[in-house]
Please model this.
Amino acid sequence: MPKSANQFLKPLTQKVNSDGNIEIGGCDLVSLAEKFGTPLYVLDEKTIRAICNDYKNAFASYPNTTIMFASKALCTQAVTAVMDSEDVGFDTVSGGEIYTVYKSSVDMKKVLFNGNNKSFDELNLALDLGVGRISVDNFYELALLSTIAQSKNKTVDILLRITPGIECHTHEYIQTGHLDSKFGFDLTQIDDAVDLILGEYTNLKLHGLHAHIGSQIFESAVYIDEIDILCKEIARLDEKFNLKLDEINIGGGLGVKYTSDDTPLSIYDVGKMITDRLNTSVKKYNIAPPALFLEPGRSMISMAGVTLYTVGSSKQVPHGRKYVAVDGGMADNPRPSLYQAKYCAEVANKKDETQNEKVTICGRYCESGDVLIEEIELPSLNEGDILCVYNTGAYNYSMASNYNRVEKPAMVLLNDGEADEIVVRETLEDLIRNDVIPDRLKK
Ligand code: LLP
Model:
């Protein structure tokens, strides 16, 4: 099976140019740092388009497959526009994501709204903007959605989010499909939910079942189990309620290669395994082949992104390690401190030099835990060097904060030697925009 873009650690267009600098998307990273400043989020459009094609080709043999990008991985209007132009749909989890997708002129029928505690306002917005499917997570939401639908005299197209009871071997915080989870209906609760939908909440039209078993997954067996459980449930609900469900959404979760130790699966292998299993389960349970939906986030965007930092101070701890500090850290990439995530990096302006120093790359935030990379071998670093950290496209900008009251970085999208600024760097004024000093405290 061919390799897919998620199996690469670096953007597909990454190379060393004649100046000895690293280049991505035909753009010299050192020049980008000079022009746009650092920290800088950088995205390679070709890699995004390549992975979209990998997904489409890998599932081409199953007639009715839709890929929905999980916007939580990276939600900006330009990224949404690129994905939209590849005919990808969107999984959203908040009013903010729905609004971003809407403002990017996406056909809202291609949008799914997920989440375990959607608010009244968010559900209202989803209905007003014509979101295609709402994946209902719990009994509270069934009642709330039905009431809102009634007030608008609308019928709402829904899925039921279920907890299939599958454990996958990933970090505990990013597992979601095991039994003791805050997400979705337990298998034993589905019948009560269906009873309510068919009897009381008749303005909710149930199309299918949805599950998501976890994130940064390197094993395929979990998807096989998941598909089997979903198909079995569809057959069971048909028998018990004479209910014809024709959609399954198996969530996202495929892994990427943050370091050379990671061995993510090829989308082509996963595509074959999933479609084979689906065909088998359809026969086994004697159901009509359901439309298949996937909602990958990380594996569609992570490797397309790098973050550029400028090296500043450094400290050699006597008889200890050497810390090299960069001008960003846990606020632009909280993943190392939250999940002990590992990253790798190169020096954009020293690609020719051999690696001769073991250092710890730390950030500029006031916390000891603000370490981006523990122990990495790099050419010896000096103030002003440009560090390129790979595989930062997913869950970096989308989880960024203004901790220590630091402005969030800019983001550029690279393609064929062009660099478009798609998120403008925050300013000091942006930081105080929403502050209000009560009159009694004003000077
Ligand atoms: N669908 C649902 C319902 C989800 O909850 C998620 C991720 C996805 C799809 C996309 O999963 P992916 O393909 O990206 O693995 N912040 C964490 C990841 C949290 C994932 C939450 N749900 C991290 O930085 O690792």
Observations:
- The pocket of LLP is lined by residues 70, 72-73, 91, 114, 174, 176, 212, 215-216, 251-254, 295-299, 335, 339, 395, 399 (CB under 6 Å).
- The radius of gyration is 23 Å.
